[in-house]
Prior knowledge:
The chain is an all-alpha fold. It has four helices and no strands.
Amino acid sequence: MTMNENRISSTQNPKIKHLQLLRQKSSERRNTGMFVVEGKRELQHCIDAGLNISSVFICMNYMETSILLYAIKRLRYQ
Length: 78
């Protein structure tokens, strides 16, 4: 799977809407088997645990942190 690099600029974007739904509804998390992780430490825990990362949403202002770069590289090779 290759990473889909898209800039999202609207809260009306379907990906953002789904992200918000996952954050707010436990039923959506159960039905999809997905959950939201926030923060580089938590992302590192998920990577260390070998979890399948389906999407990474980042603010470009924080792009320099190594864990985010590592996660993005990992997504490219899943």
